[in-house]
Amino acid sequence: DSLLIEADQPDLDGGSIIALIVPDSNRLSGGPAAAEAYSLLRDVELDTAVVVSPSHSGEFGRLSVCKVDTYQTPLGDVVINDHLRNELCDEDDDIFLDDTGHYHTEGADVQLPFLQRILGDDFDTVPIVMGEESPAFCRELGRAVGEVLYSKQAIVVGTADILEGEDVALEKLRAAIESFDVSEVLHLMASETVRVEGMGAIATVILAAQGRGATHARVLALGGLQDGTPGPIACAFWRA
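Structure (tokenized):
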């Protein structure tokens, strides 16, 4: 609540918000960046939030959508959109109903309380964990999410943290994200100059945002490792 109260809402010049990237972890250091991004959802009517997160259980070679009917948080339960998750599974053979990688202290477990505070109780969700973050999987998931959400009142949220990044490389990453250059984003995150936990979520969100008609992107926060703490990344994608 304090983070959201203190957050300054960025000005998107009246655009329609389509997707966000927010810090993945529950570290307080990422809180202000997450709150700034989520403040863009104030007074926005949304039915569904699709949350794409990296696996914290190691790679498992698939994209998993949780099997439960409701996702429990300290602020109450959030209903899982069963129709939408089945649509996603129908879109691609690598997307499964599977609890592998879910229910941690990162990913959807951190993001849903923010969404509950901003959107209230009148939304459902589809949490997705990427058990593989190859370019092929990113493109598959980004295309599938973009297609099933194309005309829906929904937000796509990707979660990631910057583990290591030289200043020059981070500025290149900023430019690549804001120009929707997914190939350059993947190249930078695969290099030794930028290390990201959640690189698949970043690429997937950019692709899904493009598929849903996003015309603008802005990096709201981007920082490297400080005193052993991952740096925050926060981005907004919208349609003018």
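The longest strand covers residues 154-165. Residues 29 and 215 are 30 Å apart (CA to CA).
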